[in-house]
Please model this.
Amino acid sequence: MTAQIFSPLEIPETLAAGPGPGNTDARVLQAFSGAGVADHMQGDVLRGMIECKHMLRQIWGTSNTYTFAVAGTGWSGLDTMFSAVMPGDKVVAFSNGTFSGIDALTLRIKAATPQEHAANPLDPPAASVTAIEVPHGQTVTGETVEAALAEHKPKWAFMAHWETGSGRINDLRGFSDACERHGAMGLIDAVSSLGVEDFRIDDYPGIAGWASCPQKGLCCLPLTYAPVSFTDAYIDSLKSTGAYTYVHNPIFEARHWGIVDGQDVEKGAYHRTHSGYAVAAFHESLRLTLQDGLSKRSASYRTHEKVLRDAVTALGCEVTSDMPSLVVLNLPAELAGREMELVQNCRARGFGIWPTLSAPVQVRIGILNQLNRQAISQIVRLFAEAMHELGGQVDFDDIDALLQSRYGTSIAA
Model:
């Protein structure tokens, strides 16, 4: 049989303007491609890993020794965090969109008994897991969390900090406080907030576990390292119960990063064949985050999101989100029902916006690593052109005037 030889794969430049991944920072790409061909145990690679865990602690504002990163995307970090949940554990999970819904499914899979897995392997009916469904487009409030934890008294409570499925920010303070009051160990999906929002883990003592990703707020490559952080109470629970995993067991993974028995040690003690290229890229993304400063970066996101929000509102759209890195909107009445068509037209031109992945169908426009006048103006104009092409009412002069009035010389490029 003659082998089919395909032509070389050439991927063009695209504008990633969805909920994530964002366009990787050019300086991170340079660190990735500029790394020497090195053994994964080469001294600079190991030094880079040590520095990464210390930078992560600074960025996340924590004294948790068990703060490190897991090879892979945000799903790898989340799977590591959820690994402490054992069959029969009592869990309350709050869901208000696509991704917190998938997290809730993961928790059912982790907490289900063998009999429950046999009943439905892909969606086991775990009796010990209570899923609190908050309607799409609404926020998980502290009151909702308080009521559920008071009623169910779980061992674990879960919430997404920022739900990109609907673009909503959930009540982190209310969640942490309720977990403290009711003796639950909180677990947080911080995939979309790390590197965008200025917050400190140690300000939320009710939360025992955190998981994030490299490819959103940190502007790094996917499949590098997903940050996680765990309190001593989480690790103590894990030690007492064990976990049905080797690769994603937080205690084993921590040893890879030189964290053994709650202490930093000179070198890792758990074998993982990692990539020097990935370490170089992740190191640079963390270094740049600290160099920029979370306070300044967070303020910049809010400033530029406000411009985008006002521009799409001027185009007749209704914004339903409150995240500073993502605008989720309904199209004007004359274009209602054509969301997928508009998104597909944009993506065919290299303008990577996204629909929502669950009902109702809305349009999502993100600004990850697009924090300058030129990028936001380009996003607004490309979206306006796409609406106009479908027959929407667009006054381009008004949109240009809005951009000029908001930027002018008041916002640095």
The chain is about 40% helix and 15% strand. Residues 294-314 form the longest helix (21 residues). Residues 339 and 363 are 6 Å apart (CA to CA). The chain has a mean pLDDT of 95.
